[in-house]
Specification:
Elements: E1 5-11, E2 16-21, E3 25-31, E4 38-44, E5 47-51, H1 54-60, E6 71-73, E7 79-86, H2 100-107, H3 112-115, H4 123-132, E8 145-147, E9 151-153, E10 159-161, E11 171-176, E12 180-185, E13 202-208, H5 217-220, H6 223-236
Antiparallel strand pairs: 1-13, 2-12, 3-11, 3-13, 4-5, 4-8, 4-12, 6-7, 7-11, 9-10
Length: 246
C-alpha cells in the first residue's frame, strides 16, 4: 500500500534543521549521493526534560547497531519512534558529534565570514543553534544518533568509521509513536577520515503512517519494546507513569 507524502524537502550537506513530528507520521530520510550522516536528537515537546536516551535504546534491545525493527527510547522509558524501513542495515548511536575544534583540526577553519554557505559547520554547534530556538542550551544536549553511519572495532579495540556504509538512494523510515521535537544536522560523522570536508545532502519526507497492527515488527521484536509501547499508551491517556527497563 502506497503511503501519502504530506511534505518533502532537501537538507543540504553541513546544514541543520528542527521540526515537530506528530504521532502517526513517518519521517523518511534518503541519502542522495552516498556517504551521508544525519545527526539526530529527540525531545518531548510537552516536557523538554524528556529526551532521547542512547544507552537505554541499545540496552533494552540488546544491540550495538540500529536498523529496521528497533525503537528509539526516551529517558522515561517511552518510545519516540520506531524504525519501520531501512535499506542501510546499520546506524550508530555511540560516537556523538563533531565540534568546532575537531573540524578545524581535520579540515581547516572555514568561517562563515570567509566562505559563506560553504563554511565548515560542526554537529555540536548545529544542535546548540536548534536547541536555542526552543529555549534550550548546552545542559540539554544528549548523546545523538548518527543515521547512515557505521563504525567497527579494530584489532586494538578502537572504533573505526566504515566507509561506503550508505549508498546513493538508501533510506530509513522513522514512525513516530508520540509527538516529538526532532533536531537534525548533516555535518560529517566525527570519525569520517575524508581528506576534504564532506557535504552530503539528504531528502526528507513526512508521510502518513498506517495504524500500528498487533503483529507490528518493532513492537514485537523485543519484550522491552512491548513495555515501551505500553508506556506510550499510558502517557497518551494522561497518566505519565512508566515502566523501568532495569
Amino acid at each position: 500500500m502506497s503511503k501519502k507524502v504530506l511534505y518533502e524537502d532537501k537538507l543540504a550537506g553541513a546544514c541543520h534543521w528542527s521540526m515537530h513530528m506528530r504521532k502517526g507520521t513517518i519521517l523518511r530520510l534518503t541519502d542522495l549521493e552516498g556517504g551521508a550522516n544525519v545527526g539526530m536528537l529527540f525531545y518531548n515537546p510537552e516536557n523538554m526534560l524528556e529526551r532521547y536516551n542512547a544507552p537505554d535504546t541499545l540496552k533494552a534491545q540488546h544491540t550495538f547497531k540500529l536498523t529496521r525493527g528497533n525503537c528509539l527510547y526516551s529517558d522515561m522509558g517511552r518510545i519516540f519512534a520506531s524504525i519501520v524501513e531501512d535499506s542501510v542495515g546499520w546506524h550508530e548511536t555511540v560516537c556523538g558529534n563533531t565540534t568546532k575544534e575537531k573540524i578545524a583540526a581535520k579540515w581547516g577553519e572555514h568561517s562563515y565570514q570567509d566562505y559563506r554557505n560553504d563554511w565548515n559547520q560542526n554537529g555540536y554547534t548545529s544542535f546548540l543553534v536548534e536547541l536555542a530556538k526552543y529555549g534550550l542550551g548546552k545542559k540539554d544536549m544528549a548523546a545523538n544518533l548518527n543515521l547512515f553511519s557505521a563504525v567497527k572495532v579494530d584489532a586494538d579495540g578502537n572504533l573505526v568509521y566504515v566507509e561506503g556504509n550508505s549508498k546513493a538512494g538508501d533510506s530509513i523510515e522513522l514512525r513516530f509513536e508520540m509527538d516529538t521535537l526532532v533536531l537534525m544536522h548533516t555535518c560529517p560523522h566525527p570519525l569520517n577520515p575524508a581528506s576534504e570536508y564532506p557535504r552530503k545532502p539528504v531528502q526528507y519526507e513526512i508521510i502518513e503512517a498506517p495504524e500500528v497492527s498487533e503483529d507490528d515488527l518493532c513492537m514485537n521484536s523485543r519484550p522491552e519494546n512491548q513495555r515501551g509501547f505500553k508506556n506510550n499508551e499510558i502517557f497518551h491517556l494522561g497518566l505519565h507513569g512508566g515502566c523501568s527497563h532495569d
